[in-house]
């Protein structure tokens, strides 16, 4: 028995594929305002970087739930007055929000998926950017972005953000052992930035974030949260972002929500799950994971990659 595709069905399939590609392109566009950090990664065959095949990091950060994780981390980072002051006084996120977003995304991509030369380059860029970021917060506390405890707050909030978001919105739920492995893998990155302390289990990390004694309200908190709530995005992208922002803030512990002066929206978790499932259909897994597997000569899973890497694979 033969199955034939009618012209109408064929046209419908083409239109669906065009729609999927447009959604994927629109979702990826905010991150394309800086050079792709893994453009030369195939020049380092067999280099696993800091994580490597079989790591939880590669699987977790390749999923689109990491979009929500990034938003969550940026919001939580604003709860620390000295970190918020550093961003307020030294960052150009208001003048160049897409550039800042792209550079942050590139750092995560390079440090987690890159070969060691790419990891080292990403760390060097962060150190260079952080070296002049120092001053005094509104409550008279001195800060330095390169200081271990401030680097720890930023790093740990990012790790916790990605993990919590994957557990809520990912394609599967990690086991406790896998969650601990992810946290431990991420400490390898934090160590290169001299972050200290760094909890090594998921439970320790969540408690460290939620119970941190240095948190409080600040002028920097107010400006950062206002910006993160309504960034300058095109109308359709803004709607998608608002869903992810609401989902991200709904996963933040109550104490931190009170400090940040944000409220949990009813139905935000469900809406986030539905939207991330839609994005996963449109985008598949991150092409950075595919490139890393190619660099290592590992098998490429079938049916999970829907975007081609932004590099030539003919080497």
List the main descriptive attributes of the protein structure presented here:
315 residues, mainly alpha, two-stranded antiparallel sheet, globular
Explain what you see.
This protein has 315 residues and is an all-alpha fold. The chain has 14 helices and two strands. A hairpin with a 5-residue loop joins β1 and β2. α1 packs across α13, α7 (148-169) runs antiparallel to α8 (176-192) and α11 (235-250) packs across α13 (268-283). The N and C termini lie far apart (44 Å).
What sequence of helices (H) and strands (E) makes up the elements? HHHHHHEEHHHHHHHH
Q: Kindly give the count of domains.
A: 1
Strand content: under 5%
The helix tally amounts to 14
> Widest sheet: strand order?
1-2
- General shape: globular
How far apart the termini lie comes to: 44 Å
State the assembly state of the protein chains: single chain
Radius of gyration: 20 Å
Detail the topology: elements first, then pairings.
Blueprint lengths: L6 H22 L27 H6 L3 H13 L3 H10 L6 H17 L2 H15 L3 E3 L5 E3 L3 H22 L6 H17 L9 H9 L8 H11 L5 H16 L3 H7 L7 H16 L3 H10 L19
Antiparallel strand pairs: 1-2
Helix pairs in contact: 1-13, 3-7, 3-11, 4-10, 5-6, 7-8, 7-9, 11-13
Describe, in short, the structure shown:
The chain has one domain. Helices cover 61% and strands 2% of the residues. The chain contains 14 helices and two strands; from the N terminus they run ααααααββαααααααα.
């Amino acid at each position: 028995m033969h199955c034939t595709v009618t012209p109408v069905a064929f046209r419908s399939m083409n239109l669906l594929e065009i729609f999927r590609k447009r959604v994927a392109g629109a979702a990826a566009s905010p991150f394309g305002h800086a050079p792709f950090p893994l453009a030369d990664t195939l020049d380092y065959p067999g280099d696993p970087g800091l994580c490597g095949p079989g790591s939880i990091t590669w699987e977790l950060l390749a999923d689109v739930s990491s979009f929500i994780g990034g938003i969550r981390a940026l919001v939580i980072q604003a709860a620390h007055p000295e970190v918020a002051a550093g961003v307020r006084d030294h960052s150009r996120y208001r003048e160049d929000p897409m550039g800042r977003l792209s550079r942050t995304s590139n750092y995560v991509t390079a440090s987690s998926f890159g070969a060691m030369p790419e990891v080292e380059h990403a760390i060097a860029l962060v150190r260079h950017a952080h070296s002049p970021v120092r001053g005094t917060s509104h409550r008279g506390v001195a800060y330095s972005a390169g200081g271990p405890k401030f680097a720890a707050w930023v790093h740990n909030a990012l790790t916790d953000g990605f993990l919590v978001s994957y557990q809520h919105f990912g394609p599967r739920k990690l086991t406790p052992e896998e969650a601990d492995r992810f946290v431990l893998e991420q400490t390898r990155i934090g160590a290169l930035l001299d972050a200290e302390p760094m909890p090594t289990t998921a439970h320790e990390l969540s408690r460290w974030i939620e119970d941190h004694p240095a948190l409080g309200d600040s002028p920097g908190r107010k400006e950062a949260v206002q910006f993160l709530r309504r960034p300058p995005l095109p109308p359709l992208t803004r709607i998608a972002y608002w869903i992810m922002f609401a989902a991200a803030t709904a996963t933040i512990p109550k104490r931190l929500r009170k400090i940040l002066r944000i409220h949990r929206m009813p139905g935000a978790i469900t809406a986030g799950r539905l939207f991330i499932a839609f994005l996963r259909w449109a985008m598949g897994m991150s092409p950075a994971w595919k490139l890393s597997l190619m660099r290592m000569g590992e098998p490429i899973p079938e049916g999970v990659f829907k975007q081609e890497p932004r590099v030539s694979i003919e080497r």
